[in-house]
């Protein structure tokens, strides 16, 4: 019973993701997020942080994995609340539209 | 698929919220990843730190925000007092007036090129001795003078007349000419100041006459010098010019016509005769290159006297007095200058000369 529920859950998520991509909503949301993050200075803050990290490690020894490990938590934390709220709102309306089908 | 979507509607809000959060986290992660790729590429390509500047230089180039200063911290109207030194006449001119001055001084205009050329040619013919030949070459070349392009072309066609007879760059010729001109300048007390005008007290009657046929000549009230501009100089009126001429040359002297004194490139028989005679002279000196200087000069003078009348008639514009003082310079200048057509008007002046 539990396994089937888990399975159903995963299937549902896959279906929603599929829908997001098919309708192009995911692409739109990504673009919106990008624009908002640049607008609010998230990118500049992160870049400053990047510089510190890179100087610390040395220019030659920087790898993408290092950067991702260092940057992603920071990036997630630095997203302003307003941006987060707006994005979540749009995701919810999308879900509501497609859940009612 | 249909079944699952139907089941979506049955999900409670908390489940939907969880999914929404998940999607959001996914998107943020995507953005972060994209940013990381961007930075990594910038680092590996070496342009990541390009926009960095060290704080010292940042301090140096800080934008200044003070009254009376521009953003670089300079007094913004200091250029008003700037002066430039003209490379041609060595006078210092206010920067805002420099371009118009240079145009006049270098002779880049239509009219001013004539004036400037005449001025330089005059001063060279009368003042210089050794470098006479080279300078004349430069002046008459006119390659650099935009306004006189047409003139230069005409001159080229003139040169066709000369070329078979003589080589203007022949060292022997220039040598003998230099010699002659050196003698001439010693005997010529004429002083010509290019920049300020002419003090007429120092001029002899012949020089005065030739000056007045080529230049405005009106005497300034302030400097007591004669105006060295063209006959049409806008600063003085025809009345003033006439008055000066009457004062110097007597009541018979009228204002010479400007048109006739300008170049007009016609060629008459006396010119070609003069050329032929010069050719003969050239040939003779070719035959005896070891001639002493004195014999050459006598030869030259003899030739000059023989063609004196035609010379002075052709070049009376500015060299008639020279042909009277010393014949050699008229020879030299005539060689470089275009032959001037006989100027029929203003007979009173020219009758005096001839």
Spatial separation of the terminal alpha carbons of chain B: 121 Å
- Structural class of chain A comes to mainly alpha
Number of discrete domains of chain A: 1
| Largest sheet geometry of chain A | none
The number of E-state strands of chain A comes to 0
Assigned CATH class of chain A: Mainly Alpha
Topology:
The complex is a heterodimer of chains A (101) and B (354).
Chain A: H1 2-23, H2 25-39, H3 42-57, H4 64-78, H5 81-99
Helix pairs in contact in A: 2-5, 3-4
Chain B: H1 2-9, H2 13-45, H3 55-60, E1 83-85, E2 92-94, H4 95-106, H5 110-127, H6 132-141, H7 149-162, H8 171-187, E3 198-199, H9 205-214, E4 225-226, H10 238-249, H11 258-261, H12 269-287, H13 293-306, H14 308-314, H15 320-325, H16 327-336, H17 347-353
Helix pairs in contact in B: 5-6, 8-16, 12-13, 13-16
Can you offer a commentary on this structure?
The complex is a heterodimer of chains A (101) and B (354). Chain A is mainly α and 101 residues long. Chain A has one domain (24-100): ENY2/SUS1 (Serum Albumin, Chain A, Domain 1, Orthogonal Bundle). Helix content of chain A is 86%, strand content 0%. Chain A is built from five helices and no strands. Chain A has helices at 2-23, 25-39, 42-57, 64-78, 81-99. In chain A, helix 2 packs antiparallel against helix 5. The longest helix of chain A has 22 residues, at 2-23. The two termini of chain A are 26 Å apart. The model of chain A has no long low-confidence stretch (mean pLDDT 88). Chain B has 354 residues and is mainly alpha-helical. Chain B is 58% helix and 3% strand. Chain B contains 17 helices and four strands. In chain B, strands 1-2 form a two-stranded antiparallel sheet. In chain B, a hairpin with a 6-residue loop joins strand 1 (83-85) and strand 2. In chain B, helix 5 (110-127) runs antiparallel to helix 6 (132-141) and helix 13 (293-306) crosses helix 16 (327-336). The radius of gyration of chain B is 38 Å and the shape is rod-shaped. Classes of the chains: A mainly alpha (101), B mainly alpha (354). The A-B interface holds A 8, 11-13, 15-17, 20, 26, 29-30, 33-34, 37, 43, 46-47, 50-51, 54, 59, 62-64, 67-68, 71-72, 75-76, 79, 84, 87-88, 91-92, 95-96, 98-101 and B 1, 4-9, 11, 16-17, 19-25, 27-37, 39-40, 43-44, 48-49, 52. Chain A: It holds the Pfam family EnY2. Chain A: Its main location: nucleus. Chain A: This is Transcription and mRNA export factor ENY2. Chain A: Belongs to the ENY2 family. Chain A: InterPro entries: TF_ENY2, TF_EnY2_sf.
